[in-house]
Amino acid sequence: MIDNKFLGRNGFIWFNGVVEDRHDPQYLGRVRVRCIGFHTQSKTMLPTADLPWAYVILPVSSAGISGLGTSPSRLVEGSWVFGYFRDGMTCQEPLVMGSLPGRPSELANTAKGFYDPNGIYPKYKDEVDTNRLAVNLTDDRENEINPHLALTLRRSTRITGIATADVNPVTAADGSDIIGSDGDTFDQPEIPYATVYPYNTVYESESGHLMEYDDTNGHERLYSAHRTGTSYEIDKDGNKVEIIKGQSYRLLSNKEQVSISGDSDISIDGRHKIYINKSNTVDNHYDIQVGTGANINIQVDSGDVNLITTTGKINMNSGGDFNLKVGGNMVIDVAGTETKNVSGTTTHNTTGATVIRGSTIDLNP
């Protein structure tokens, strides 16, 4: 015998309604919904707290078990929803199947039902609920209308004029020229946003975290941002821009290898330290190799260059000439023996006195 009270045989009773509470004490993602035609608008006759809890049906991309998938639902107070009553004519066990975006003609009236009781949503009236970044509304002259605040801030805080190292040209001790390496500046690229509806899929959280998957023809890009502005963006050509508004940490448990096919510039306002072989492992060297036709240029504008070993040697092998130019005094303090082997001629030119002291002085012994 057929049980007509069984779910699926008792008719499909559906509803439209407004979410008025999402703080589910059981943490199941349930919401309280005031349903049109089933519930009164009077919050005196039917307070929000007396509305039944409605389960929210999840997509198949969420398992709905053991915390797998997306949870909880992202409905907020003020969201319009569609669903049905799984208990049929009793209408006490609502299930929400989806949300209904629209074009709000008024803001929330907290004194009445069918509105956000907190007065937060909708944020705008006479504007579609679709995210502004997905719409990119423009006038007849292609000027943007009501651009998203995050986009406006990104454009206004774009960083430009970042200086690179500038090494001055000087003359070496033998009179030859040490060619300088002129610095320049670089800019954060222009914000590549050029969305055409409906090709930009946007996710925005309540606090302002953003994700964009933009498939606009010729302007395809990915963008992910924290509400503070820390973000990364990949433009249509695969160029990537990362912006970190706070501190950045990268903690690797194993090997890292980086290959850069082009140039690399680093500009640092603070200090820079490198600690090699922290584990004191044999043969963990710090190697720098510069290919043919390029130089190593180190310039200290005001300060010292200090090269120190605590127990080891300092070895310098020059494949060509060795030029040392000293603008002030030169002091060499040798604790042991000093030995010079010169295959050619040694010439000393001094405009002052030459003083040589020793217990014995042997000339051509």
Plain-language structure description:
The protein has 365 residues and is mainly beta. 3% of the residues lie in helices and 16% in strands. A hairpin with a 5-residue loop joins strand 7 (170-171) and strand 8. The chain is elongated and about 125 Å long.
Q: What's a concise summary of this model?
A:
Helices cover 3% and strands 16% of the residues. The protein is mainly β and 365 residues long.
Comma- or semicolon-separated keywords:
365 residues; single chain; five-stranded mixed barrel; 14 strands; mainly beta; five-stranded antiparallel β-sheet; elongated
Give the strand tally: 14
**Low-confidence parts:** none
Biggest sheet, open or closed, and with what strands and sense? 5 strands, mixed, barrel
Radius of gyration: 36 Å
Strand order of the main beta sheet, please? 1-2-3-5-4
Strand content: 15-25%
Structural class: mainly beta
Q: What best-fitting shape do the alpha-carbon axes yield?
A: elongated
How far apart are the first and last residues' alpha carbons, in Å? 128 Å
Mean pLDDT comes to 94
Q: Tally the helices.
A: 2
Helix content: under 10%
Q: From N to C, what is the helix and strand string?
A: EEEEEHHEEEEEEEEE
Helices and strands in order:
Layout: E1 14-21, E2 31-35, E3 53-56, E4 80-85, E5 94-99, H1 132-135, H2 149-156, E6 162-163, E7 170-171, E8 177-178, E9 185-186, E10 200-204, E11 210-214, E12 221-225, E13 231-234, E14 240-243
